[in-house]
Amino acid sequence: MMREMNSPFQLIGLSLFFIPYTSATTTQQVGELEYFTESQSTGHKTVFEGDTLRSEPNQTIKITFIDQSEIWLTPNSELVVTQFKKGPQDNDERFGLNHGLIRAKIQKNPIGTNRVMIQTRTATMGVRGTDFVVELDQAATVHLNTLEGQVILGKTPQDLQNDKTSTLVPAGHASELTQKDRVPSPAKTFDQEAFVAKLAKVSPSLGHSVKNSFHHQKPEPVTQKTDKPNGKKRKKH
Predict the structure, then answer these.
(1) With bands split at pLDDT 50, 70 and 90, how would you rate the model's confidence at 205?
(2) pLDDT of residue 196 exceeding 70
(3) Residue 96 CB burial class (10 angstroms; 0-12, 13-18, ≥19)
(4) pLDDT at res. 139
(5) What is the rounded CA–CA span in Å between residue 142 and residue 131?
(6) Can you spell out the DSSP letters for 65-101?
């Protein structure tokens, strides 16, 4: 795993070129990461805002942030901690997935707004406290599977505010967005057993963790979830 500072282009996932990070004096510590080889823990390291995290082949990385949110990186994945701001009430966190597959367990903010966004060169995801898995494959297609809560998937941050250009993906549902498509696919239920088997082949430790989560989750109807503070329902595509 290599630690680097991201370029401005990584905010929208359009660049894979990085400027090496040389000093931690201007960044804040935001969490700790743990390395896993197969299912065995093999080390720990501090994570700072601005870090670029890369997992090696046969290596899974689990990041535990200061708010107890977690992100797992499967082998050969790359994630940028673009922004991690904690205010007295409102939080603003942004991550860039450059390639690979991650699981994110985002904690809800009990006293204010928790704005969390994950961006790739193909899509943007808006999170409001939830548990999900997202993959950016070699064809630059984004595959999103929500385990708990809800995630909004769209092409750009602006698209997340429009029902016609985004898809609400509640627990037990999946959606995808290709590089050529303008709107994500409609949210559909997915085979949990097959999904866990796929994850276990990539990362045994992550597959085991997701399997345990499914024991406590049930699919939620797409039309019954809301994504805005005013409680307005989003229409199913």
Answers:
(1) confident
(2) yes
(3) buried
(4) 96
(5) 16
(6) ETTS-EEEE-TT-EEEEEEEEE-SS-EEEEEEEEEEE
* Sequence-distant (≥ 6) Cβ neighbours of residue 144 within 8 angstroms: 125, 132, 133, 134, 151, 153, 169, 174, 175, 176, 177, 184
pLDDT tops 50 at residue 25: no
Q: What is the dihedral of CA 39, 40, 42, 47, to 10 degrees?
A: 40
Task: Report yes or no on 235 lying in a domain.
Answer: no
- Outline where the chain has alpha helix (H): 192-202, 204-214
Q: Structural domain of residue 126, as residue ranges? A: 8-216
Instruction: For residue 188, list its beta bridge partners.
Output: 174
The alpha carbon of residue 196 and the mean position of all alpha carbons in its chain are separated, in whole angstroms, by: 17
Query: Token digits for 112?
Result: 């204010």
Q: What contacts 8, CB < 8 A, 6 or more positions away?
A: none
Query: In this structure, is residue 51 part of a structural domain?
Result: yes
Q: Using pLDDT thresholds of 50, 70 and 90, give the confidence band for residue 223.
A: low
Paired residues of 101 in beta bridges: 135
Task: Kindly report the backbone phi and psi dihedral angles of residue 50, in degrees, each rounded to the nearest multiple of 5, phi listed first.
Answer: 95, -10
- pLDDT, average across residues 147-159: 95
Which CATH number does the domain housing residue 201 bear?
2.60.120.1440
The CA distance from 149 to 52, in Å, is: 27
134 or 90, which is more confident: 134
Length of the chain: 237
- Radius of gyration (C-alpha) of the chain in whole angstroms: 17
Measured distance CA(24)–CA(8) in Å, rounded: 18
Instruction: Look at 7 and 120; give whichever has higher pLDDT.
Output: 120
